[in-house]
Task: structure prediction
Amino acid sequence: MSGKEGDSLWPWDAPGQSPERGPGEEPDLPVLAGVGEPCPTCGETDGGVLAVKRGRFGPFVGCNRYPDCAYIKKDGPPPPEQLPFTVGCPRCGEGHLVARRARRTGSVFWGCSRYPKCDFTTSHEPLGPVHDADQGPVARRDDESGICLKCGAGVALPAGRLPDPGAPLAGGPPDPAALARLGGRGVNRPNLSAT
Result:
């Protein structure tokens, strides 16, 4: 940076980039929901008001009293509903699977409660029954079949109502390659944290 008058840190302020703004003028910030409302953290006590801020991931709504108040309004999908039963982690065996929501896509996935020590995840919802051969949790692969999340064996799902959580379902032989095709972190890797 040369430090001359008119220099700007904003790349869109380069000459010829935006004729409607002069050098050094910031672009207009978008109108976001919540701007002008009292800050839920400090609005009543210190008079904080929500305002549009610029961050490295784009504009967001936060308290105008930052850094004294670090409130940020977070809009997004609600947290996913947890399973009505407990499913043990097929990788580490110590944690249990909890529903989580991906930050970027908003899709629901199930991961080990011991994260980051165990990074097992799957996008297939555990159903409750377990594979009779290894007691691994069974997840839905499609409408008619399931998969054991521990060994990758195909498991036929009964028509109608599923058995109670923890009830064994007969399945085929182990198929580790099926787990690799499922994707997710940690599903097809050995448990390195147990060593």
User: Anything to note?
Assistant: The mean pLDDT is 79. Residues 176-182 form the longest helix (7 residues). DSSP finds two helices and ten strands in the chain.
